Amino acid sequence: MVDNSSPSSSTVSRTVLLFLRVLTFVFLLIALILIAANKYTNDETGDKVKFSDFYAYRYMISTIVIGFAYNLLQMALSIFIVVSGNRVFNGDSGYLFNFFGDKIISYFLISGSAAGFGVTVEMFRGVPSNSFSDKANASASLLLIGFLFTAIASTYTAFALPKKANN
Amino acid sequence: MVDNSSPSSSTVSRTVLLFLRVLTFVFLLIALILIAANKYTNDETGDKVKFSDFYAYRYMISTIVIGFAYNLLQMALSIFIVVSGNRVFNGDSGYLFNFFGDKIISYFLISGSAAGFGVTVEMFRGVPSNSFSDKANASASLLLIGFLFTAIASTYTAFALPKKANN
């Protein structure tokens, strides 16, 4: 079923994948903290602004949380496989889960990042840059980097598809 | 090099791919017309609003044009292959071009759609819906549908990777 003839190359790509997921996890965690703690009080008018006042930032948070949960699950599965020496999925389902998981999560992450950037650019145009817009941009940038790592992981898992049995 | 033992299944998936690309092309064309022709004049104040006043809509147009050009190229290549009976790319490069092309273009399309939706929702919140925001939403929706077709095509081209020679 599974190609065990080249354990070294398979171990290398599994390590690269795990490394990419840990990196994504770290970047998403910082992005989440930055955007969730983002508050701003205008000293002159006393107006308070929070991330939850903007639908786009709420959507961004949802995509970060979804990506975060997915990467946590993948890391837990990797550790389980290393510790127990068993595969969690039988046959092809592991490859398909990785392939579709990475693909769908990477689409979520880039859509959240694009929505966040779009709204920050548009809402704070002509306004002098302040800590609120800076943090929102920083969070969207970290989310974009997390997306890039997931997109690379997604390319890896697509190239792993030939190892499926049904070819 | 290329698996020619099952021409029927390969012809079917090539037809499905071409069909998905024609659909994407049509949806992107309508999305482009809708957003590029989007103007609004406020009857009371006389203020004029155009799509180019918003950075997010300009980004959206760029992603539509990129997706449009890519699908045009792919359709031209398909017609060339059918007419001449030759492959345009030798060996593996055709599969890799399709795989990375679909993957990257689908990321562009969803980011454009997300930026467009995010800004429309945020800018026209609390404002009664008008023809400008309606058309912007319609364009972003069509772009999202175009993305879905490209994402399906991208899954197809990923599953075609095992036909590469180097496995």
TrEMBL record, chains A, B:
Superkingdom field: Eukaryota
UniProt keyword Transmembrane, yes or no: yes
Organism: Flemingia macrophylla
Entry's localization field: Cell membrane
Cellular component GO terms held in the UniProt record: plasma membrane
Residue intervals passing through the bilayer: 16-38, 59-84, 104-124, 136-159
Keywords in alphabetical order: Cell membrane, Membrane, Transmembrane, Transmembrane helix
Family statement: Belongs to the Casparian strip membrane proteins (CASP) family.
InterPro entries with a match to the protein in the record: CASP_dom
Oligomer and partners: Homodimer and heterodimers.
Presence of the UniProt keyword Protease in the record: no
Topology of this chain in the membrane: Multi-pass membrane protein
Chain ranges of the Casparian strip membrane protein domain: 13-149
Name this protein carries in UniProt: CASP-like protein
